[in-house]
Structures are given as structure tokens and as C-alpha cells.
Amino acid sequence: MPSPTPYAARTTFERNCLAELAALLKNTPWRRKQTAVFRKDGEYFFVGRLNVHRNATRTIALFEAKPLVVDELLWDILGMRENSNEPLSFRAWGAFTCTAVPLRESEIEINNSSAETVARMFVSFLDESYEYAKDLLMHRDFLELLVEHPNHSERGSYAITQVATLISKEKYDEACTIATAHDKGNRTSTFQLHSNGASFHHLAVSWLAARLSSTEPT
Predict the structure, then answer these.
(1) d(CA 182, CA 162)
(2) Phi, psi (5° rounding) for residue 66?
């Protein structure tokens, strides 16, 4: 039989890592779907992602966070409230969800590490990142972390998460200003969502207008 291609070998390596990971995560608060490991704690959703490179001997671990409420608001604005009945893993993989903000990243495959070693390093990374993130979010505002991240400051990647977070904090005017800027094309983002032909930002402006008009004194 011919030797497996590098791509096939790396695919097998990922599969072996995930098998080792499944055993290590038993009887822990972490849950896994595909290459994402996740949990919720208080008002936040935390997710670690195992990224096995196919064209190099590298595995990168990424740890992200987002408030749970932002997805609920997104679904309300898009008219997809039924998504709130989806399992928790949907917040990591669902197409219509807010993007979580990366808080930590680490290379965990060193000197041709075995799948077991990479899986153990990933679990250690998860636990350390979880404690780091909890402490960070106690002392820093999530919105500040979002705005400061290069993915957002350079590419506007988390604009939808930003607007939803502002709404959750009842900062309606600021949320409307940002959503309007994106709706009119004055701001750009690498991540867009649409429902029935309308962008999230367009729908958010309408949602906010209805919300504000309903709270005005008569």
C-alpha cells in the first residue's frame, strides 16, 4: 500500500487527538463537539478550539469567550428565537451565532508530539485559559477586550457581537450608531449575517427603533 499523504496523515493525527481528548474530558465540566470544547459559567460561554494544521506539523489551541446573552439577542433580532432551544454546542458551531472573542492562543504540538501529548497539553491549556479568562473578565469589560482585539480594530470582525453586547448593556444609542454605520457601508466587517435578505445591522436598527419607541413615555 502507498504511504498516506501528509494531508491524510495529519487528518488521522487529528482524529487520534480527538479520541484521546474524549477520554480526558470524561467527568469534567467540559463538553466537546468536533474540534471545539466548551462550557458555560455564569453569564459567559467559553470555547477552546483545537486547530491541527494539515500542511505542517503544528497544532494551535485557541480560547474564546462571549456573553451568553448576545446569541439570544441575535436570534431575537434575526427572527430566529427557536435557536434558543438548540444544544449548547450550537453557540460554538451554529451558523447564526455571535462570534466569540479570542483571549488566548498557544502552540501545543512540539517536536512531533504524540496525539496523547497534544490532547493532554490542550486540556491543560483549557483549564489555564478558563481561570485566566474568569479573572480577566472580573477586571476588564468584555466590550473593551472586543474593541482592542486586532481582528476587530483592523477588520471589524466582531461588529455583530459588539452591537449585541451594547444592546445587552442597554447602550442603545451607541448600538444604533454602530449598526447604522455598518448598514450604510460606512464601516466594514469580515463577518456578516443576513435573514430574509436583510443584514443583521439593518434589522438591528429597526429592532432598536421599535424598542426605543415602545419605551418612550406616552
Answers:
(1) 12
(2) -160, 150
Tell me: pLDDT of 2 over 70: no
Read off the C-alpha cell for 42: 455564569
Q: What is the DSSP string of the chain?
A: -PPPPHHHHHHHHHHHHHHHHHHHTTTSS-EEETTEEEEEETTEEEEEEEEE-SSSS-EEEEEEEEEHHHHHHHHHHHT-GGGGGS-TTHHHH-SSSPPPEEEEEEE---SS--HHHHHHHHHHHHHHHHHHHHHHHHHS-HHHHHHHSHHHHHH-TTHHHHHHHHHHTT-HHHHHHHHHHHHTTSS--S---EETTEEHHHHHHHHHHHHHHHHS--
Q: How far apart are CA 198 and CA 181, in angstroms?
A: 15
Quick: pLDDT tens for 138-155.
999 999 999 999 989 888
Q: Which pLDDT score, from 0 to 100, does residue 215 have?
A: 63
Single-letter amino acid code for the residue at 142: F
d(CA 7, CA 46): 30
pLDDT digits (tens, 9 = 90+) for 64-108: 999 999 999 999 999 999 999 999 999 999 989 999 999 999 999
* Per-residue pLDDT at 114: 96
pLDDT greater than 80 at residue 4: no
pTM for the model: 0.92
Residue with cell 418612550: 216
Give me 94's grid cell. 451554529
